[in-house]
Design a protein that fits this description.
The complex is a heterodimer of chains A (125) and B (109). With 125 residues, chain A is mostly beta strands. Helix content of chain A is 0%, strand content 52%. Chain A has no helices and 13 strands. Chain B contains no helices and 11 strands. Helices cover 0% and strands 49% of the residues of chain B. The chains are: A mainly beta (125), B mainly beta (109).
């Protein structure tokens, strides 16, 4: 059974750095073809993909946010961590981690097939 | 970056009716790497369709996807009460910088 759970602060102040942790079970990020991504959703708005980390430690970031994002993994703990610097009120959103994509021999088989329940982060002084 | 435009913004239908949702891409989506997700209030999105037309595990066959290139469609053949939700398309093509559409809300008429 695959599960993911996000954790982190519910409230951060402008200019602070946000650190979110995704703790997962039911799969291993050391398995070839496995990846974990972060996606966010401002209240009442659409989804926005933020970052992805692959089993081989390759990392990818949203073009518009890449200077502020860092993604890392701790395979032994089954965790993926996302940091976002210089937080602003417009970054207020529910942040999700999701398994995906999954790949076989470099070919994507499925996108985001399992999601955490999300964590709401509010940026306010 | 590929921009996805979903239409209509809101679809007002009755249970039992057919729903047709559109997703148009600003450039061709490689290998039909187009997915559809369903999201209900307070819940995470759920994967419905991937590869433009493959149903994810456990998804009822009243949900179907079609299309290629820049035009894709999600069809719900007969709406059940639990199908009223917001639906998002997503492209996951060759670029790892993936994008979502702005969503279509299917509401009860």
């Amino acid at each position: 059974q695959v599960t993911l759970r996000e954790s982190g602060p519910a409230l951060v102040k402008p200019t602070q750095t946000l650190t979110l942790t995704c703790t997962f079970s039911g799969f291993s990020l050391s398995t070839s073809g496995m990846c974990v991504s972060w996606i966010r959703q401002p209240p009442g708005k659409a989804l926005e993909w933020l970052a992805r980390i692959d089993w081989d430690d390759d990392k990818y970031y949203s073009t518009s946010l890449k200077t502020r994002l860092t993604i890392s993994k701790d395979t032994s703990k089954n965790q993926v961590v996302l940091t976002m610097t210089n937080m602003d009120p417009v970054d207020t959103a529910t942040y999700y981690c999701a398994r995906g994509p999954t790949m076989v021999r470099g070919v994507i088989t499925t996108p985001f097939d399992y999601w955490g329940q999300g964590t709401l982060v509010t940026v306010s002084s | 970056e590929i921009v996805l435009t979903q239409s209509p913004g809101t679809l007002s239908l009755s249970p039992g009716e057919r729903a047709t949702l559109s997703c148009r891409a600003s450039q061709s989506v490689s290998s039909s790497y187009l997915a559809w997700y369903q999201q209900k209030p307070g819940q995470a999105p759920r994967l419905l369709i991937y590869g433009a037309s493959s149903r994810a595990t456990g998804i009822p066959d009243r949900f179907s996807g079609s299309g290629s290139g820049t035009d894709f469609t999600l069809t719900i053949s007969r709406l059940e009460p639990e199908d009223f939700a917001v639906y998002y398309c997503q492209q996951y093509g060759s670029s790892p910088r993936w994008t979502f559409g702005q969503g279509t809300k299917v509401e009860i008429k």
